[in-house]
Amino acid sequence: MSTLSLAQQHAQIKQQLEQFAHEYYVLDAPTVPDAEYDRLMQSLIAIEKEAPQLRTADSPSQKVGGAVLSKFESVEHEIPMLSLDNGFEDDDLVAFEHRIHDRLNMSEDIEFACEPKLDGLAVSILYEKGILVRAATRGDGQTGENITENVKTIANVPLKLLGENLPSRLEVRGEVFMPKEGFENLNQVQKEKGAKVFANPRNAAAGSLRQLDSKITASRPLRFYAYSVGVLEGGEIAALETHSARLAKLSDMGLPLCRESDVAVGAKACIHYFNKIGEMRSDLSYDIDGVVFKVNSLNLQQRLGFISKAPRWALAQKFPAQEEMTILRAVEFQVGRTGAITPVARLEPVFVGGVTVSNATLHNQDEIKRLGVKIGDTVIIRRAGDVIPQLVSVVEAKRPEDAQDIVFPSRCPICDSHIEKVASEAVARCTGGLVCGAQRKEAIKHFASRKALDIDGLGDKLVEQLVEQGLINNPADLFNLTIPQLTSLERFGDKSAVNLLRALETAKNTTLAKFLYALGIREVGEATARNLALHFLSLDKVISANLDELTEVADVGEVVAHHIYEFMREPANLDIIRQLQEAGVNWPDIEVASAEQQPLAGKTLVLTGTLSQMGRSEAKAKLQELGAKVSGSVSAKTDLLIAGEKAGSKLSKANELGIEIWDEQKLVDYLNSL
Ligand code: IVH
Question: Number of H helices and number of E strands within the chain?
Answer without folding.
Answer: 24, 24
